[in-house]
Design a protein that fits this description.
The chain has about 550 residues and is α+β, with helices and mostly antiparallel strands. Helix content is about 20%, strand content about 30%. The protein folds into 4 domains: about 210 residues, Immunoglobulins (Immunoglobulin-like, Sandwich); about 80 residues, Immunoglobulins (Immunoglobulin-like, Sandwich); about 40 residues, no CATH class; about 80 residues, no CATH class. Strands 2, 3, 4, 5, 6, 7 and 8 form a 7-stranded mixed β-sheet that branches. Strands 19-25-24-21-22 form a 5-stranded mixed β-sheet, with no helix packed on it.
């Protein structure tokens, strides 16, 4: 026999708040099993006849299992097998005797079962061999239950009961002992969790503590099947109607017998005996109250009331057949009325273009109006482009010629100024430098005959010599020059070269250098000298 650990659960006293549902387990956890146990508690002012377990996700959330009850305070447990890996949403719904329903806050959990090795797969969850019966005993006594008769596993099992307000539970070696509050009787249920240390399963335990002195009036009543609405459309109690017609529907449980329906609009019964009703909007902007009353064979009723707010043609909404504007009236198809465009008001309006209204629809610079009234980019002709290039080239050449003439005049003016600074060559005294050789005459001889000095200090003027005032040198300098001319070996020139060098006029040399500095070539300088009466023999030494 397998043995369980002993758990001492604290006795809880007090009164649970009225009309509440607490979705207890699982709550935001990861379950490593495809079998999941769900537990929820409820406490209400009147008896709960049924508890539904909703399971799924945001897009598919529906009833998975249900349990029948006849108490106002209890616990409901559900076991769901074959849940695949994923994240789920769940919650309990308590159905009261009067047909109303209460729900608790939905909880989430995740199923995550990973593949394991062969040794790990050998460990299986605890196995429930048979279902637990309702535990019934009299008040002011205890009840004992051997849990090993209902659960088995290769490992040691632990049992945990969810605490109850009026019954305490003690577990020792697989034996559970239930002790109710002194003098209390009634029905409750709780959740039992069974774990082998790795896997956990749970189940619901129903307990019934009887009062042998009291008459069970519920047993005297004829059992009546439950009657309730499984779904309602639309689900909202207050509904804003934008469409022309609205379909309302109520679905009751399939096993209900001889169900009849009554529909009311603002308290006026409609001639409809069906689970659905179609309402056509009047588009008057008023609110309409629609109610449905469903009755079964046992005279049990389920009802639902909607407050429908109708739209109108002046409600600021586009509804009915309205388009673009809230046009009012009977909401026939309508469009916004736009004024005809006015040409010449300075505003380009719809329908205006550069042909129909050039005053308002002018084309931008570089664009022209086409035949269809569109502004297109202006295309320039190739001939015009060529003409423009030719004109530009002509203007550029004229400017270049003008600048060349201007520069040329400035250069010539500068040359003339420099020429004017030089003594005209025709006025240069050229003694012994005859342009042409002529046969000497007597007068020439007399003129060439040197004068005898009157004293020793006066030197005889030799032919071919210049006077000091002609050469720009004093007597001593002239003598020195003559002395140097007598020594050709000192100058590196022969006698003939020294004679030619002594015959070059300094003013001629200066003129040639000036002309060269002004950019004149030697040929141009020679031509100018010849034009002034100079011969080649006279000017050649000055260019050497």
């Amino acid at each position: 026999m397998k043995r369980g650990l002993v758990f001492f659960l604290i006795f809880l006293a007090g009164v649970v708040a009225a009309n509440t549902v607490d979705n207890f387990y699982p709550d935001n956890i990861v379950v490593n099993n495809h079998t999941v146990n769900f537990s929820c508690n409820f406490s209400t002012d009147i008896n709960v006849t049924k508890v539904n377990l909703y399971l799924g996700n945001a897009s598919d959330f529906s009833v998975n299992k249900s349990l029948d009850f006849n108490t106002n305070e209890s616990n409901a447990s559900f076991v769901v097998q074959g849940i695949e890996n994923g994240t789920y949403l769940w919650g309990c719904e308590a159905v009261l005797e009067n047909g109303s329903r209460i729900v608790g806050e939905n909880k989430t959990f995740e199923v995550k079962v990973e593949k394991t090795s062969s040794e790990e797969q050998a460990n299986l969850p605890p196995n429930q061999t048979k279902g637990l019966p309702e535990l019934v005993w009299n008040k002011s006594t205890s009840f004992t239950l051997n849990l090993s008769e209902y659960f088995e596993d290769e490992d040691e099992l632990e049992y945990v009961f969810y605490p109850m307000a009026r019954i305490s539970v003690e577990v020792n070696n697989d034996i559970a002992n239930f002790t109710p509050m002194k003098g209390w009787s009634g029905k409750v249920n709780t959740t039992l969790n069974i774990t082998d240390g790795e896997y956990t399963i749970n189940t619901t335990v129903f307990l019934n503590v009887k009062n042998p002195d009291a008459i069970n009036r519920s047993e005297l009543k004829k059992e009546v099947p439950r009657f309730y609405a499984e779904s309602i459309e639309p689900l909202e109690t207050t509904y804003s109607m934008l469409e022309d017609s609205l379909q309302l529907k109520i679905n009751v449980n399939e096993d209900a017998e001889n169900v009849s329906y009554k529909w009311y609009v603002n308290g006026v019964e409609q001639n409809v005996n069906s689970d659905s009703f179609s309402y056509t909007s009047q588009h008057n902007g008023e609110s309409v109250t629609i109610k449905v009353l469903a009755t079964d064979a046992y005279n049990q009723t389920v009802e639902k009331t909607w407050v429908i707010k109708e739209t109108s043609c002046f409600d600021g909404l586009l509804n009915g057949n309205e388009e673009k504007i809230d046009c009012g009236g009977s909401c026939q198809p309508c469009v916004e009325e736009k004024p005809e465009p006015e040409c010449g008001n300075g505003v380009r309006e719809s329908g205006e273009n550069c042909l129909t209204c050039p005053e308002d629809a002018t084309c931008s610079k570089g664009f022209v109006c086409s035949e269809n009234g569109n502004c297109v980019k202006e295309e320039k002709s190739f001939a015009g482009l060529v003409i423009g290039i030719i004109i530009g080239v002509i203007v550029l050449l004229m400017l270049t010629g003008f600048l060349f003439k201007l520069i040329q005049k400035k250069v010539e003016s500068k040359v003339k100024k420099e020429e004017n600074k030089i003594k005209p060559l025709t006025e240069v005294e050229k003694p012994n430098l005859q342009p042409t050789e002529t046969k000497p005459t007597q007068d020439n001889v007399n003129q060439q005959k040197p004068e005898q000095p009157t004293n020793m200090n006066q030197s005889v003027e030799q032919p071919g010599q210049l006077k000091p005032e002609q050469t720009g040198m004093n007597v001593q300098e002239q003598k020195t020059e003559q002395t140097q001319m007598k020594q050709p070996q000192q100058t590196g020139m022969n006698v003939q070269e020294q004679k030619q060098e002594s015959q070059i006029d300094p003013q001629l040399k200066e003129f040639i250098e000036k002309m060269r500095s002004l950019g004149k070539s030697d040929e141009e300088i020679k031509a100018k000298l010849k034009a002034n009466g100079w011969t080649d023999d006279e000017i050649r030494p000055a260019f050497n």
